[in-house]
Description:
This protein is α+β, with helices and mostly antiparallel strands. Helices cover about 30% and strands about 25% of the residues. It contains 9 helices and 20 strands. Strands 1, 2, 9, 10, 11, 12, 19 and 20 form an 8-stranded mixed sheet that branches. Strands 13, 15, 16, 17 and 18 form a 5-stranded antiparallel sheet that branches. The longest helix is centred in the N-terminal third of the chain and has 20 residues, at about 60-80.
Amino acid sequence: MAEKCDCLVIGAGAVGLSVARALARAGREVLVLERHESFGTETSSRNSEVIHAGIYYPTGSLKARTCVRGKELLYEYCDRYHVPYERIGKIIVATTNQQFDALRGYQRQAKENGAGELTWLSQRDVEKLEPAVACRAGVLSHSTGIIDSHSYMLSLLGDLEAHNGVVSYRTEVSKITIDSALTVVCDGFELAPAVLVNSSGLAAPALSPVRGPTGRGYFAKGHYYVLSGLSPFNRLVYPVAEPGGLGVHVTLDLAHQTRFGPDVAWIDGPDYTFETSNLERFIDAIRRYYPDLDATRLHPGYTGIRPKLAPADAPTSDFVINGPEQTGVSGYVDLLGIESPGLTASLAIAEWVVDLVV
C-alpha cells in the first residue's frame, strides 16, 4: 500500500531544488528524492556556470521565456541571499566576414526575446576590450553573468529546509505509475503524492510514463579544459554557435580561471570519462579566436552531459514542461530536456510549475 504524501519532487538539481523551494514557500509539505549522495551532482554542477541572457532561443519558446525571466529572478535571488556571482558580460565573435549575418541575427533575436541590447563591436572595439581575442567583429551582451552554482544550490536547499522541506538522498525512483492512482516506486516502498514533479534531469524521459515505453532521452557529452596561470580574458568569449551547443567558448569562474568548452560528443548513456583524444580539435577551435594559445597550459578539467530530447541529426528541441493538462493526471508535472539554459531558468521554471499545481 502506497503511503500518501503532499508534494514529491524527483531530483535535487538546480531546477528540482528551485521547484521544491517554491512549493514549500507556497505552504506545501515537500519531499525531494535524490538518488545520489548529495544535491546537484549531474548536469547542475557540470556546466559553464553562466547566467545566460536569452539570446539564442526561438522567440516565444520555453527556453527564451524562462531564460529571460529566470535571469531577472536569479540576479535578484543572488543579491538577496548573498550568492556569489558577477555580471561579467559576454562577447560573441565572428572570425570570418561570412559570420556577420549570424551576429546580426543574434542582435535581432535578443531584442525579440527581451534579452537586452547586444552592442555591435568592430574589430578594434573587441581588441580594446579583449586584447587576446582575434576576430573580425563581435556583439556584446551586457547582462550575461557567471555564478557559483554550488553556493546557489546550497542556498536553495537552505531555504527549502527553512520552510520544512526535506531531501532524501540515496533514494532512487524506479518507476512512476498512473494507472488507478499516481504512485512513485522507490527502493522498498511506494509513495502516493498529491503533487509530483519529475525533475530527474538525464533520467526524466525514461522515468516518465506519459512518454510511453519508447520514450527516451539523448545525451550530448561536453568536455572542459582548464587553462593554467593568469587568464588572458576579462569576460566570456563565445564563437558563433554550432549544432548541438554553443561552441567551444571561454568561461571564467569567480576566481577568473579560464575554462574552454564544451564540445559536443553524442553518447548512448551517462559517461563522464574525459577523452583527451579531442585535444587537437579543442586547440584548433580555440585558436580561431585566441591564436596565441599556449597548448601546454591546457589541462583536462571535467565533463558534463546535456539531456536532449532529439538525436544528433534533428533540430534542437525546446524545454518540455508537461503539466496536468498534458500528463492527464492532476498534480503531475514532467520536466523534460532541461539542458542549457536550465540553470539560469531554474527559478522561472519553478514559478511555472507552482502555477500549474498550486
